């Protein structure tokens, strides 16, 4: 046992130093920033385009006074509900040929008009393909009713508070979703480094030299924990940069963000622990796959089902957000591969800490079991090199040797 741990420590120190002290480690730290940057840019562009194209545009053919009343009524309604879902009003002065004007407006592309409102407030008439869009008619009915007779209800006095259970629950659900997404993204990204490093060492025959000095199990465990330590350094750097960016861009910094149920210090501590568990569980699977393959093509082919299954597991874990005590959430918390993501979401929504102690112990048992199984498969396949022999040729060779031995004895 001591030889196994000593060998694992030697391999971990070697791989950790080769990774962190290399010139490419800086590019490794900058790597996740590019997907986030491009995702933010294109996501913002896509949201802007979707907002403009999905919001119905209604052409209002009326006098200036009627349009002013309708526009004010729409503004008042937009303060009560989400303005992004309301129709957009565009004013046009009436022309002599009303029917020709309506046909022309419905054929207009910029802006793309969904329907045309004529008749003003006295006799409103809506024209357009409204059978598939009843919401536009309902919204215009409310806008016209409010514009004709503005309500004179009682004035509501408001007492402002910092937060309520409803607002905190919504914010904590968002924190849980972001935490799960980051945990999934970082694990998939960083586990891929194990495969590339292992394939490189197998192709250069370096791994056979190392395996002659230490046990194969030590080689497997050392490589896994070395990349885990390098990944945690990367996470600390990324988290520090993110906190600095929030402090610069948002007045008040992290203090203005909605706190998780367990508090920010404990939540960040649990992020590191659950990332370590998730990385060890998935990294052992990826490292075992790398031991089975001898080329990059084989690695990509064999790792694709694991990646897709992890996406399905991430979707299964995401269903626990918002209802951590449901039966589905409990099943996802017990299942070892989804348990880290589910429990991280629970930390954002539930202040109790004892479930995390049980979950970490349960995950540690599965980590030990998967490490043992992965090390066994790694030991059986990592030193095999050369062209592979098909099973029927191997069987024919063994049969030929058996027949030759029998004849020699005879």
Explain what you see:
- By secondary structure, the chain is mainly α.
- It has 2 domains: 55-148, Periplasmic binding protein-like II (D-Maltodextrin-Binding Protein, domain 2, 3-Layer(aba) Sandwich); 168-385, no CATH class.
- Helix content is 70%, strand content 4%.
- It has 15 helices and 4 strands.
- The chain has helices spanning 2-20, 25-30, 33-54, 64-80, 98-106, 134-148, 165-203, 206-213, 216-249, 264-292, 296-318, 327-334, 339-349, 354-381, 391-409; strands spanning 57-61, 88-92, 115-118, 125-127.
- It has a 4-stranded mixed beta sheet with strand order 2-1-3-4, with helices on both faces.
- Strand 1, helix 4 (64-80) and strand 2 form a beta-alpha-beta unit.
- Helix 7 (165-203) runs parallel beside helix 10 and helix 13 runs antiparallel to helix 14.
- It starts with a helix and ends with a helix.
